[in-house]
Design brief:
Strand content: 35-45%
Number of helices: 2
Number of strands: 8
Largest sheet: 5 strands, antiparallel
Shape: elongated
């Protein structure tokens, strides 16, 4: 069985000395069947480790320009390496993104953040009516 090349490895964690946790993503989303498929493919390679494969969750990290383009219109939290306009944390809606920067609508204004200045960024879960 061959893995789908559009599966993306988002993050790897080492929660214990012999454990690995992989966060994966796919353009069509991540479900239990996809996690099981990836686990089965990697099981032989990781005989000395326990393995957990998971979706990135509601607070999915955004690490590449393509991620910002894919989630245009969604709420995001961006933390910069150095101050930009007097701050390092920005929470707003992704207005636009290209290969060099992401534009975030903060409500009262917009800020353009060059990708190389981003330290961390992730989607912000959106509350639906009745979740409060």
């Amino acid at each position: 069985m061959e893995l789908d090349p559009s599966i993306e490895l988002i993050a790897v964690e080492n929660p214990s000395p012999d454990g690995l946790r992989l966060y994966i993503d796919h353009p069509d989303g991540v479900d239990l069947a996809l996690c099981e498929k990836v686990t089965a493919q990697l099981r032989d390679l990781l005989a000395d480790h326990s393995l957990e494969v998971s979706s990135p969750g509601f607070e999915r990290p955004l690490t590449k320009p393509e991620h910002f383009r894919r989630f245009r219109g969604r709420r995001v939290k961006v933390r910069t390496r150095v101050e930009l306009e007097g701050r390092r944390n920005f929470t707003g809606t992704i207005a636009d993104a290209d290969a060099s920067a992401v534009s975030v609508d903060l409500g009262d204004r917009s800020v353009t953040i060059p990708h190389e200045r981003i330290r961390r960024s992730n989607l912000v879960p959106e509350l639906k009516e009745g979740d409060r």
